[in-house]
Amino acid sequence: MTDPIVAKIEANPKYHELRRKRNAFGWTLTIFMMVVYYGYIALIAFNKPFLAQPLGTGVTTLGVPLGMGVIVFTIVITAIYVRRANSEFDALTKDILKDSSK
Amino acid sequence: MINRLKHLTLAASLMAYGAAQAAGPDMGHVEKQATNWTAIIMFTVFVVATLFITKWAAARTKSAADFYTAGGGITGFQNGLAIAGDYMSAASFLGISAMVMTAGYDGIIYSIGFLVGWPLITFLMAERLRNLGKFTFADVAGYRFQQGPIRAFAASGTLVVVAFYLIAQMVGAGQLIQLLFGLDYIYAVIVVGALMMVYVLFGGMTATTWVQIIKACMLLAGVTFMAIMVLAQYGFSPEALFAKAVEVQTIIAGHAKDAAIASAAAAQAAAATPEAAAKAAEAATKAAAMDPAKTGLAIMGPGGFIKDPISAISFGMALMFGTAGLPHILMRFFTVPDAKEARKSVLWATTWIGYFYILIFIIGFGAITLVLTNPEYADVVKGVLKGGGNMAAVRVAEAVGGNVFFGFISAVAFATILAVVAGLTLSGASAVSHDIYATLVKKGKADSAAELKVSRITTICLGIIAVVLGIAFQKQNIAFMVALAFAIAASANFPVLFMSVLWKDCTTKGAVIGGFLGLISSVGLTVVSPAVWEATLGNPKGSAWFPYSSPALFSMTIGFVGVWLFSVLDRSKQAEAERAAYKAQQVRSETGLGASGASGH
To answer: What DSSP state is assigned to residue B438?
Structure first.
C-alpha cells in the first residue's frame, strides 16, 4: 500500500512522538495492573494469614480494604489512562491528521 | 459439619463452578417454587417496555450497519452501561452473592478476576479495535490478511464461543425461572428464545443495546437499594455487619459441631466391631476439636479459592484475556462513533462493574445476617438456603424490600439473561452474514439489503438452535461451558487479534494456524480436565490427565506460539506483502485515519 497520506503521517515527527508517549504510558500502566493483580493473587496463594489478620480489635481483616483497593485501583488506573488519552493524545492525533491533509 | 463440608466442596469446585457463574450459574439442585405473580407481572412490564423500544429501533434499522452496530451512534456512556450489562449477568448477581454468603471473602477474590481485564483492553486494544473495525472482530484481525482463511477462522472462533455461552445461558435461564417464577423449564427456555429473536430480528443492535442499558440501570438501582438497606440495619457500619455475620456463622458452626459430636456418640454406642468403634472414636475426637469461633471468623479471610497456583493463574488468564476475545463484547466497540467514545465506554463499564462487585460483597454478607437467620428462608440450624443457594440475593431483596421488591429483583434477573442472550445471538449472526456471506461468498460485493436478510435468517436459526440446545442440555452439568467459552476466547480469538494488530511480522498463515491451534487445544484440554472428563463424562476420579481446572495458561501459550511460529516460517510472497502492509494498518489503527466513515453514518 502506498497511500500518500499514510506516508505523510509516517514522516511526521509528531506521529512518532504520539507513538512513543502512548506506548510507554500504556505499557507502564499495563505492568502496574499486572503487578497489583498477580501480587494480590500471590498473597492469597502464599500468605493467607497476612490477609486474614484483623484490623484493630474488630473482625474486619486487612484483606477487605486490600481487595476493595484492587477494585478501586482498577477503576482509577483506567480513568488515568482515558483522561490523558482523551485530552493529550487525541489533541496530538488531531494535529497529525490535520497536517496530513494539508 | 455441614458447614465445614460445604466449605470444602466449595473450595474443590470453586474454579469450575465459579467460571460458570460468569453467565449461567450452576444451580445445583433446583426446586421449583410456587408461581410468583408479582415477579411475572413486573417481568411482563419490562417485556412490554422493551418491545416498544424494539418497535422504535426497528424504524431506525434500515441498513446492515444499523443492524450490526446501531449505525455507530451510541455514546460512550450508553455503551459503557451496555458493556457492564453484558458483564453483570444473572449469574454474577446471583452466583457471586451466593458465594459470599457461603465462603465470605473468597467471593471478592473471584469477582476481582473479572474486573482486571478491562484496564488492559483499554490500554492496548480499545482504540485500535475502534479504528480498524467495522462490524465484527474479523474486520480488525483480518485488516491486511487474505480474507478467505482469516474470516473462516474468525467465524469459527465466534460461533464456537457463542454456542457454548448460549447453551450455558439458556440452561441457566430455564433453571432460574423455575426458581424465581415457578414456571416450567421448557416454557422458560422458549420464552427466552422467542423474545430474544424479536429483539434481534426487528431491532438489531439498537434494540439489543437499549434492552441491555435498561436492564443495567434496573440492576444497578436494585443492588444499590439493597446494599443501602442492608447497611442501614447496622448503622452504616461495615464492621458491625461483618461482626454480625461472623456471629451467625459461628452459631451455625456450633450447631455443626454439636451435630458431629452427637452422631459420633451414636456411632460409638452402636459400634459392633473394634474397627467401627475406633472409627467412631476418631470421629468423636475430630468433632470435639472443631472450633466454631474459628470457622465463623474464617469468612473474613481467604479460604480455599486459590488452592493450586497454576489453576489460579490459568483461570485468571482466561478471565483477564478472554474478555478481550469475546465476540459479543468486542462488537460493542464498533457501536460508538470514535476512539474517544470507545475509551470512555470502557471506563464507564469498569466503573459500573467495580461498583457492582463492591455492592454484591455487602449484599452477600447481608444474606448471612438477614437470610440465614430467618427460618422462613433457610434452615437456620444448618445454615443452608431453602430452594438452593442461588436464591441468596433475591431473598435479601425480599428481606429488605418486601414482596414487591422481591418481584422486581426476580424480573431483573430474568431480564438480564434475555439481554445477554440477545447480544450473543447478534454477534453470531454478524459472523455468519458479514464474515461468511458478505465477505467470503459474495467477495465483499453483497448489497446491504441482502446482507441484512442473511443476518435475520441466521438469527432465526440461532434462536431455534439455542432453544433446542437449551432443552437438550437441561439435565447436563453445564458448569464448564462458560469457562470453556472464556478459555477459547482467550486462546483463539485474543492471540490472533492481539498479534495481527500489534506485531508487524504476523501473516495470514500464522494467524489462522495459530488461532485454530489455540481453539483446538483449549477445547481438547477442557474435555480431558476433571470438570468434563470426570464430572460430566463419568470417568473415575483421578483419570483426567489434565489436572487443572482451566486450560488457558497452556492453550493460550499454544495459540501465541502457533501464531508466532507459523508467521516466522511463512516465507511466501503473500507473507511479504502482508508484512509490508503493516505500516499502513498501524498508522490507521493509531490515528483513526479513515475510520470515521467506517460505521457508514
So the answer is: I
> Looking at the predicted structure, is the pLDDT value of residue A33 above 90?
yes
For a pLDDT cut of 70, what percent of chain A falls above it? Answer: 98
Q: For residue B426, what pLDDT band results from cuts at 50, 70 and 90?
A: very high
Is residue B196 one of the residues assigned to a domain?
yes
Closest-CA residue of B relative to A37 is: B116
Rounded distance, CA B549 to CA B261, Å?
35
ipTM summary value: 0.93
The cell numbers describing A32, all together, are 502496574
pLDDT at A2: 58
Flag whether residue B265 sits within 8 Å of chain A, measured between CB atoms: no
Domains: count for chain B:
1
Q: What share of chain B is helix, strand, coil (3-state, %, to 5)?
A: 80, 0, 20
Residue B260 lies in a domain: no
Instruction: Write the DSSP string, A48-92.
Output: HHHHHSBSTTSS-BTHHHHHHHHHHHHHHHHHHHHHHIIIIIHHH
Parent domain of B69: 2-245+294-591
- Kindly state whether residue B17 falls inside one of the protein's structural domains: yes
Judged against a pLDDT cut of 50, whether residue B15 lies above it is answered with no
Cβ within 8 Å, pair B112-A67? yes
**Average confidence (pLDDT) over B26-31:** 51
Residue B440 has pLDDT above 70, yes or no: yes
Residue B176 contacts residue B24 (beta carbons within 8 Å): no
Of A30, A38, A74, the CB nearest to B350: A74
Q: Do A74 and B300 touch (CB under 8 A)?
A: no
Question: B593 at the A interface (CB within 8 A)?
Answer: yes
Note whether residue B271 is domain-resident.
no
Give the pLDDT mean for B497-523: 94
Write the CATH number for B431: 1.20.1730.10
Question: Scanning the structure block, which residue is given the C-alpha cell 502492509?
Answer: B581
Q: Is the pLDDT of residue B26 over 60?
A: no
